[in-house]
Design brief:
Number of domains: 3
InterPro entries: cNMP-bd_dom, HATPase_C_sf
Protein name: Cyclic nucleotide-binding domain-containing protein
Domain Cyclic nucleotide-binding: 362-416
Number of strands: 25
Strand content: 25-35%
CATH class of the largest domain: Alpha Beta
Radius of gyration: 35 Å
Distance between the termini: 75 Å
CATH architecture of the largest domain: 2-Layer Sandwich
Mean pLDDT: 90
Number of helices: 16
Structural class: alpha+beta
CATH superfamily of the largest domain: Histidine kinase-like ATPase, C-terminal domain
Shape: elongated
Length: 626
């Protein structure tokens, strides 16, 4: 018996970057629920950087095949599974592979409720040894599981030894007749204690909160009247989900992690101010709940809304991190907003869904999501590492019929729930005010900046004209100055040939088209029309973003060309650079050709606009302070 690997999955598996070390527990818990377990057990082995995980599910048969493979083989294989999509969580059979990132693993299983017979396999350095040539044939041990474990861990610290005894107590109390036990020694992860250990007050621990917020044991569909949901909502969403007991052993004692997502319970506080009544929305302690099921394309989805004002969430999610204050390591901000869930497991935030509905787009703005948690659950496809959605899942979420159903739910809530209606109204009002204030602040900042910028004055017919010098990034202003000053040229100026009559401005392609000589008839003859590009700083340190072969003039506020270096464009052309004798403001790009060998007879004029202005006009520059 050998592990089976479907190689089209291998590259995807190898490319997985685990978002969180505790994903290994998420996957083990999912497998246990898929196996119909009613009792789960977890204990960290801090000294050994390992863990114990057990369940009383159906076990891993090594003889009964489903989808052409036995459950035992599937546990050690990639891309092969006994599970079917829609009927279980881990149908891609990828998650259990996280177990093999360790120095040693023991997998033991009991499949016959009438026999005290455990099958097991110990693998040293599984990542290096577990391949298609490695035998995973289990060893049968007709005696007790204790002998198998004692052989795997011949010596343990006192704390870890107590954890093993905690496992035996769990097996006895749960009357385990079938099930699976996984022991891991030296899991390959940094800071094992931070993520996997449990504090004296377990609810303050990272792993405790991870299980509640991100695993199948923290099923988002588990609604309760204590949370403020109605019986109708509970019946729709929660009636068909399974529930198991999860026992943890740490600090010399066993305790339970509650089942279900940790929605805040309904407050008994009276006279709570509504969203319309609070002076600052972020101080809100308002509360509301809603949930329903809907169908799209024959598939059933759940949508759950839990509104808890920002202040209430901060006060009652005691063990979640917030800005400037670390607690369990799970961030409160990561639990607020709209999320996609798959078979009860919260997967990822997806505020983009709200952005696609005009009336509710404000819920995705800024800090709006600090007041609510909306979860949409269904059988969405996931990528290999199951931390984000597949293209197929996004296609579903972008389906107009799906969006229509979500909007229908939100519309109904706005009509029937005054808290949601007031929150939405208040957010829209504040969003409008914030955006207006933001624009006013930008305008005021721009006005103040004007006073600090470099400027120049030029005299024409006894009149004085004030202009601002361009700043980096203001290529458009370079063009505006060039076009404007052409109309102020002194009569008979010897520099008139350098000032083209600009006819067009464009944000795409060539910046401007102009007339070379206004005296030519007709003035728009092809030979009389020139192309002009504007730059703040023109140099040959990087490629020019237009084809040199189609540009006649380049007008830049600053020119920093090195005549010893060629200039290239982003297409295939390059040319040489030279300074024009006699004019401090004029350069040329000549001998232009392509990498394929094509030669172009044109020459590109490069004009330093600031120096051209100084040469053409009676001008005075006033230095700025920015």
């Amino acid at each position: 018996m050998k592990p089976q690997i479907e190689f089209r999955h291998v590259l995807g598996e190898l490319s997985v970057n685990r978002n969180d070390p505790c994903e290994i527990l998420r996957e083990l818990i999912s497998n246990s629920y898929d196996a119909g377990a009613k009792n789960l057990f977890y204990a960290p082995l801090v000294t050994e950087s390992g863990l114990i995980f057990a369940d009383d599910g159906t076990g891993l048969s090594s003889s009964k095949k489903t989808n052409g493979i036995t459950p035992w083989e599937a546990f050690f294989s990639i891309g092969k599974s006994t599970k079917k999509k829609g009927s279980s969580i881990g149908y891609k059979c990828q998650g259990s592979k996280l177990c093999f990132a360790c120095s040693r693993i023991l997998v033991a299983t009991k499949i016959n409720p009438k026999k005290d017979e455990w099958y097991y396999k110990v693998i040293d350095n599984p990542r290096a040894n577990l391949d298609t040539s490695f035998s995973i044939l289990p060893e049968a041990k007709p005696n007790k599981l204790t002998e198998i474990i004692d052989k795997f861990f011949p010596s343990l610290s006192n704390e870890s030894d107590l954890a093993i005894k905690g496992l035996y107590d769990y097996i006895q109390k749960s009357a385990l007749v079938t099930g699976t036990v996984v022991l891991i020694d030296t899991l390959d992860t940094e800071n094992f204690g931070k993520y996997f250990a449990l504090k004296k007050r377990p609810e303050e621990s990272y792993v405790y909160n991870y299980i509640r917020f991100f695993s199948r044991h923290g099923d988002v569909r588990r609604l309760d009247k204590a949370h403020g949901f109605t019986q109708n909502q509970i019946t729709q969403v929660s009636s068909k989900i399974g529930e198991a007991s999860l026992t943890c052993f740490a600090n010399k004692k066993a305790f339970q992690i509650p089942h279900g997502f940790p929605y805040l319970e309904k407050s008994n506080e009276v006279d709570v101010k509504t969203p319309a009544q609070v002076s600052r929305l972020r101080d809100g302690r308002f509360f509301s709940r809603a949930a329903k099921c809907f169908q799209v394309g024959g598939a059933t989805y759940s949508i759950i809304m839990a509104i808890d004002g920002n202040r209430r969430a901060h006060e009652e999610y005691l063990h979640l991190d917030r800005k400037g204050k670390g607690r369990s390591g799970i961030r409160l901000g990561d639990q607020r907003g709209l999320f996609i869930s798959v078979n009860g497991i919260k997967i990822c935030k997806y505020l983009e869904l709200l952005e696609s509905i005009d009336e509710y787009r404000v819920l995705a703005d800024g800090d709006s999501s600090t007041h609510f948690c909306i979860i949409i659950d269904g059988e969405f496809d996931l990528v290999t590492n199951r931390n984000s959605l597949s293209k197929k899942a996004f296609d579903t979420l972008l389906d107009p019929e799906f969006i229509k159903e979500v909007k229908k739910f939100l519309d109904a809530q706005r009509k029937s729930d005054s808290i949601f209606a007031e929150l939405l109204s208040r957010l829209k009002k504040e969003s409008t005010e914030n955006k207006l204030n933001e624009q006013m602040e930008i305008l005021e900042a721009s006005r103040q900046l004007l006073k600090k910028r470099e400027r120049f004055r030029l005299s024409e017919d006894s009149k004085e004209h004030l202009f601002l010098s361009p700043m980096p990034g203001e290529e458009y202003l370079v063009g505006v100055l060039y076009a404007t000053l052409q109309n102020l040229l002194p009569p008979g100026s010897p520099f008139r040939e350098y000032w083209k009559k600009i006819l067009t401005f464009s944000t795409q392609g060539i910046d401007s088209l102009g007339i070379n000589d206004e005296s030519v008839k007709p003035p728009l003859a092809d030979k009389n029309v020139v192309s002009v590009e504007y730059k703040y700083d023109f140099n040959n340190s990087g490629p020019f973003n237009h084809a040199l072969a189609v540009v006649d003039f380049i007008v830049a506020w600053e020119v920093n060309l090195d005549p010893t270096k060629q200039i290239r464009d982003t297409f295939t052309c390059f040319g040489s650079v030279r300074k024009v004798t006699g004019n401090d403001f004029e350069w040329e790009i000549y001998d232009i050709e392509s990498e394929e060998g094509s030669v172009y007879s044109s020459t590109v004029k490069v004009i330093n606009l600031k120096k051209l202005i100084e040469a053409t006009f009676s001008v005075k520059f006033i230095a700025g302070t920015v």
